Amino acid sequence: MMVNYPLSLPLPRLKEVSYKRQSNILRTEMSSGRARQRRRFLSVPTFMEATWRFKKDEAVAFEGFVDHGVQLTGWFLMDILTPKGVVKHQVRFVKDPLENFKPISALVWQYQAQVEVKEYKAASEEEMVAQLLAPLTYEQYCDSIQESINNYLE
User: Distance (Å, rounded) from C-alpha 7 to C-alpha 114?
Assistant: First the structure.
């Protein structure tokens, strides 16, 4: 069973979150000067630079979660902000957040880490088709094609 990021802890600060997806394009230069490109994999990891700010008691809980909850290297489920809204993803720490932390004040602590997102949930094929065909549904689109073919054959 996958460990969940504690609900009692705040998520990374939005102002300081950035994402970088690993390249998924394989490019081959041809002797003619042209190039051929293709997709390498169906899914590649995305890396997220994250910054958390915690009150003292939250910082203690976060350190416990990192060291004991996921034992620093384990996968866990955490809500990630995407264009689709906040979506739960499988993530793990790439850089130890306990390597880079500091007090902001006597009551607030800041932690920074790089997090690997196993499979960033972008739009599915079904969602993309729905967007391309809007305002029609898939069934309406197929019916209109069938009607066009029938009219052509008459």
Answer: 20
Picking from 97, 77, 73, the residue whose alpha carbon sits closest to that of residue 86 is 77
Paired with 18 in beta bridges are: 49
How far is Cα 148 from Cα 135, in angstroms, rounded to an integer? 18
Between vectors from CA 90 to CA 62 and to CA 86, what angle results, nearest 5°?
80
Collapsing DSSP to helix, strand or coil, 53 comes out as strand
pTM as predicted: 0.72
CA distance 99 to 96: 5
Is the pLDDT score of 137 beyond 80? no
Task: Specify the residue for token string 């029609």.
Answer: 136
Residue 102 Cα to chain centre, angstroms: 26
Please give the C-alpha separations between residue 14 and each of 35, 132, 135, 139, in angstroms, as whole numbers: 38, 30, 33, 39
> Is the separation of the CB atoms in 38 and 65 below 8 Å?
no
